[in-house]
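Table S7 (text form). Paired inputs.
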Amino acid sequence: MSSVAAPVAVRPQRSPAARLWRFARRNPTMLFGAAILAFFVAVAVFAPLISGDPMLKAPTRRLLPPSAQFWFGTDHLGQDVFARTTHGARVSLIVGLTVAALSILVGLMIGLLAGYFRRVDAVVMRLMDGLMAIPAILLAIALVALNRGSIGIVIAAITIPEIPRVVRLVRSVVLGVREQPFVEAAIAGGARVPKIILRHIMPSTIPPLIVQATYICASAILVEASLSFLGAGVPPEIPSWGNMIASSRLYLARAPWTIFCPAIALALVVLAVNLLGDGLRDKLDPRLSRRM
């Protein structure tokens, strides 16, 4: 008698978008963070359409409580707090995203070179250790003292101390990957160094860098708010959550909405970015993925 093999059920292959959506449903906190962040991005993009002029001053309407006309009330200069809060989202998100992109890009290039070339490693890492000793706030104050405060100065002051952290992360990954058999096989096959670095080593650094970028973004938003609060950030005429809190702190007892609205917005954005980063870490870390 001939034996007939039982048919083997083949599981349908899911698309990357379907797998991501399935993971998001299993991680509601990441989905919640992504939704909050998307909301504030939309607010920042469409701020001129959904709010009025954030610079318009009207002494006759100073310190008005929230109402149908002024959703978040007005401050001590009669400015619309809702308009300034929505436009302040632009500053925070621009600073956070730009600092994350620049620090990841520069840190990736330096970390790849430091991790692959041993002679370069000793010199580069000593320079990175020196940069890590510079506090971002003190560096920003020094730069503002030499130049007029602007968003570019703030971005540069926050990016410089973040680069060494990215370099150390990339270097640690490269040191482990360069000893793998597939890299040794590429070297033995006569592949050029740029091809080895870009094709065989750099892809292994992308997952941890994506997670690191979210934490850098959240940290940059907080540092920018701190600098603006201290008067070393963006100019006072530019709406920023930090300078809004600083200018309204004397009116906390009389008009708490002038501080609570930008403070709550700041906390929500930082929380959203951190929740998104935690979810991406769970997705991109192979050890955590296997546990889940």
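Next pair, protein 2 of 2.
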Amino acid sequence: MTRNELIAAARAAAANAHAPYSRFGVGAALLLADGTVVTGCNFENASYGLSLCAETVALAKANSEGRLRDVVEVAVIGGAMAEGGLSGTSPVSPCGRCRQVLNEAAQLGGRDLIVHCAAAEGDAVATYRLSDLLPHAFGPADLGFG
């Protein structure tokens, strides 16, 4: 799977975002070691603290299928919700909480994830290693697991 195909999967997931409060839709796509793609979108709640980020939804789906250790790449896309889709020309990156949750999968899988951050419109993409987005991360290995 190419980077652009993974971003396209994240874009398709973002179309299902439930974001009536922020009006900011986000989609995430996880590439697993065997080529399987798992997607998620943000899911807001009137009690804001109960909202779920797209990356967390996708990781929970992967975990529910016993595949959390298999994540190798992530694509994230987001933007303001408008008629006809999302808008915005700046790449969107995972929030701090999502970086920490992604780190859990990365440490359990023994790899440094590739994270593609894409803009809702245009071709702007920034690609990072998760360790660059979350240096000195705390995770399972710090607790003697993983």
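The chain has one domain: 3-143.
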